[in-house]
Amino acid sequence: MNSEELKRLPVTLVTGASMGIGRALAEAFARKGHHLLLVARSGDLLEALAEELREGYGGRVFCCASDLAEHNGPERVFRFAAQHDLAVRILVNCAGISRAGVFSDLPFHDLDTIVSVNVIASAKLIRLFLPEMLAERKGTVINMASLGGAQGVPGLALYSATKSFMITLTEALHAELDGTGINVIAVCPGFVDTGFLEKAQHGRHGIKLPVYAVSLVVRAVLRSLEKPRMLVYPTLLDFFLVFLQRFASRKTAVRISGFFAAAKGNR
Ligand SMILES: NC(=O)c1ccc[n+]([C@@H]2O[C@H](COP(=O)([O-])OP(=O)(O)OC[C@H]3O[C@@H](n4cnc5c(N)ncnc54)[C@H](OP(=O)(O)O)[C@@H]3O)[C@@H](O)[C@H]2O)c1
User: How far apart are CA 178 and CA 173, in angstroms?
Assistant: First the structure.
């Protein structure tokens, strides 16, 4: 390590840190003594959380308000880290959005936004920060995927496709980076109790699976850092739902996932 690298502050970067799972992860990392770089659009929420975490845990917390749907959103985050001499050791790609309903009704503009945030921004952030991790021979990338990425989900067609992308990207990078000191992990939660479903206009009443607490996702992520695994399922039920697919046809798995998710709306 040269002297230039020595003076840089190692941080954990969490996208989508203003609320929900990202916010809970940021708090858990702060409690464990990590310095943080928080990213989301809502700068005011990030600053309020940063203040809380600095006071509560004493670490350094930086905020970068950036719209990851914008073409230059990820580059802005990368430049911010460079300008503040931050070395990103853990990258958590948690920002994500969804829109429930049949694909033919999906507002056209949402196609761009969902793919930009869930897919492009995550891939760009990995590509931007990976060379530094490789140079240090140390680092972890945590991609927030979903159980919905294990197969297509009718009513969540585009969203489930973006989460499949996160899973296959993780799998390929995990193998590419074997022996480099860098871990790549995809976390695949089922339904989690945040504001995410309401924003996606995904009514909870029809969902046939438990909508579980954020703390279960946080626990699974922290465990995955201690015992690295490629794919992480926060609950046993999540694991079994994917495992059982081995005994069904792909078409059946898709139909069942559509039944559980109940996201097709009234059509
Ligand atoms: N909740 C679930 O049931 C569930 C299940 C499986 C997987 N997941 C995945 O878990 C992740 C977090 O979900 P959550 O439940 O915590 O959702 P959430 O509470 O709605 O939080 C989403 C986060 O993403 C950020 N975000 C959204 N659009 C953005 C943009 N254009 N640029 C930058 N940041 C943006 C939001 O911040 P701003 O609005 O401030 O920008 C917010 O911090 C997502 O990737 C989601 O797909 C969720």
Answer: 8
Mean pLDDT of 101-113: 97
**Known active-site residue 159:** yes
pLDDT digits (tens, 9 = 90+) for 7-57: 899 999 999 999 999 999 999 999 999 999 999 999 999 999 999 999 999
Is there an atom of ligand 1 within 6 Å of 22 CB? yes
Residue 43 CB: number of other CB atoms within 10 A? 14
What superfamily does domain 3-261 belong to in CATH?
A: NAD(P)-binding Rossmann-like Domain (3.40.50.720)
- Rounded to whole angstroms, the Cα distance separating 75 from 91 reads 14
Q: Please pick, among 57, 159, 212, 233, the residue that the annotation labels catalytic.
A: 159
List the one residue out of 47, 48, 29 whose CA is nearest residue 92.
29
183 C-alpha to ligand 1 centroid (Å): 22
Ligand 1 atom closest to the CA of 68, numbered from 1: 32
Domain map of the chain by residue range?
3-261
Q: Which atom of ligand 1 is found nearest the CA of 199?
A: 20
Predicted confidence band of residue 168 (pLDDT cuts 50, 70, 90): very high
Contact 155, 261 (CB under 8 A): yes
The Å distance, Cα 179 to ligand 1 centre, comes to 31
